[in-house]
Amino acid sequence: MQDNSGKSKELEVAIKAALEAGKILEKYFETEVLKEFKEDKSIVTLADREAEDVIKKIIFSSFPEHSILGEETGMTKKLSDYTWHIDPLDGTTNFSNGIPIFATSLALEHKGVVIIGVIYNPTTDNLFYAEKGKGAYFNNKKISVSKDDQNHCIVTAASGKQKNDKDLKRNLFHYLPEKIRSVRELGSTALELAYVARGGTEANIQIGLSTYDFAAGALLVLEAGGIITKLDGSEWKFPDNYFIASNGIFHELLVEEIKNQKEKL
Question: 229 phi and psi, to 5 degrees?
Fold first, then answer.
């Protein structure tokens, strides 16, 4: 179902939810927002919880039959083939320390395929969105991946908290700069993938994170003309959480270097 703008109802609702969540994040940003530490030592704030509540309320008001997997509240399971993967505040550590690199991320999955992705950074008022088969957009302008090679690139990487995952990321940060121009970690997986889609960076390496971290960003990359494979270069399918998303120009170099570093672990 589409409106006159060409956006489906699902995409319109996702954008509305992201923008409303962004208002909450803006309200708390650079304040003495209450933060707590989860069992895995990650940070959660009042802003995370309030933003997730708003997102869920907006989604359920339009799609009460849809399931929602949220970072803060877990799975709300319904009898539907549609599941939303939402991270109300991706980049909580940045947010709670006054660093404006964070975003709200929402994705809609249908039978194992991500069909909607929205990422919004309220501090820069940057809105990324994509719908399967319809391209990727940044502030309502169509975007595509960069054409830069390894000599002019920025590659980002993020890992989960498992020891092997962290060790692989550490090795990549140590050795990849011998092969490419720059490696960085921005602290917000959603934005790292969004920047690949926009052409601001050339690749992102995902090592064991959660679906709500990367679902929207992965769709953005694919709709912007990028490619995604598993770390070994084989075919990637959602929800596999070990993958390389890139502009495709030096993808094989990244596959080879990851293989080399995994062999050292």
Answer: -130, 165
Q: What is the largest CA-CA distance in the chain?
A: 54
Please, are residues 155 and 202 in contact by the beta-carbon 8 Å criterion?
Answer: yes
Task: Specify whether 186 is located in the same domain as 216.
Answer: yes
* CATH number of 43's domain: 3.30.540.10
Of the CA atoms within 13 Å of residue 120, those in its CB half-sphere come to 24
- pLDDT (tens digit per residue) in 188-221: 999 999 999 999 999 999 999 999 999 999 999 9
Do 199 and 131 share a structural domain? no
pTM equals 0.94
Give residue 151's Cα distance to chain centre: 25
Q: Which residue is it, tokens 């339009």?
A: 62
Rounded to 5 degrees, what are φ and ψ at 140?
70, 10
